[in-house]
Write a structure and sequence with these properties.
One of its GO terms (cellular component) is protein-DNA complex. It holds the Pfam family Response_reg. One of its GO terms (biological process) is regulation of DNA-templated transcription. Helix 3 links the parallel strand 3 and strand 4. By secondary structure, the chain is an alpha/beta fold. It contains eight helices and twelve strands. The chain has two domains: 114 residues, Response regulator (Rossmann fold, 3-Layer(aba) Sandwich); 71 residues, Orthogonal Bundle (Arc Repressor Mutant, subunit A). The strands form three sheets. It has a five-stranded parallel sheet, sandwiched between helices. The termini are far apart.
Length: 232
Amino acid sequence: MSVSGVGPIASVPLVEDDEVIRKTVGLVLERYGYHVSTAGDGLTGLELFRDARHDLLLLDVMLPGLDGIGLCRRVRETSLVPILMMSARGDALDVVSGLEAGADDYVVKPVDTAVLVARIRSLLRRATVTSALDPGGRDRLVFGDLAVDTGALEVFRGGEQVALAPTELRLLLEFAANPGIVLARQTLLRNVWDYGWDGDSRVVDLCVQRLRKKIGADRIETVRGFGYKLRR
């Protein structure tokens, strides 16, 4: 039985060097119905991730050998699986570095298990909805050299297909549905990250930054003090 009671069990590799945290978090996730495999360092975590198909990667920033930032980058070279990062309280630089490396979201240590499970559910739901989304036809939205096929969920820039992670794709779809309209960070957190509470706007800023690198730096405009908008 899955977490929701139907469908396959979600596989979540947990990479954490602190044995107590690793065991505690692993037990909590298993209690919620996830299949958890664990590793205590970055290189072992990378091997663990590559050995099988997984639905979400949960990792700590501070890992021996290959650290969490490096692990995140290595995973992103070949996979668009959702990545949730754990960071010690106050390590703002680690959070930013992790999000820049391709993490989709983060939780603060010591981990509040209710928040952790909620974030995992949100990321998994977001990835599932994105993969199943079909707004009623293969509509092709064009913005300069950028084309978004909302039916096939494919993005092209200058005729070349662009590979986007699920969160990046959902963010672009949100912009594409509202071209020229300024979207506040909290609106994006609610509609894209599925937050039912105030989230850290840095996840929006860093995801926009990653998206700009892929679709063109001038395609998404920053409206200071308000948010972002997609240029028509």
